[in-house]
Task: inverse folding
């Protein structure tokens, strides 16, 4: 994870409720979202991406086990474009991280 950013965008948020931000380092975007104790799904437009296709590696909340604050992580990839909307489903006190690379 980089420590410096070329660009930052707030995608969605409500104080004390949830936040979603995207930060770019070079040609790679890093999207992060988190929620309070309420589960929720955010629909985030990817219009900040440049043209062409992008590979999205998604680190998402899995199905919670016995301890609701120790949610497993599910990793997946998909191809997206700037015309797509990413549905970000989050468990209570959970979140998602997405790495978006061109191609």
Result:
């Amino acid at each position: 994870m980089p420590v410096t950013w070329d660009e930052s965008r707030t995608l969605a948020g409500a104080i004390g409720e949830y936040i979603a931000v995207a930060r770019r380092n070079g040609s790679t975007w890093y999207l992060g979202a988190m929620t309070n104790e309420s589960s929720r799904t955010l629909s985030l437009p990817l219009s900040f991406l440049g043209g062409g296709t992008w590979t999205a590696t998604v680190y998402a909340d899995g199905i919670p086990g016995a301890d609701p604050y120790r949610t497993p992580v599910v990793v997946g990839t998909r191809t997206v474009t700037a015309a797509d909307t990413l549905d970000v489903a989050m468990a209570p006190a959970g979140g998602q991280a997405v790495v978006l690379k061109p191609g």
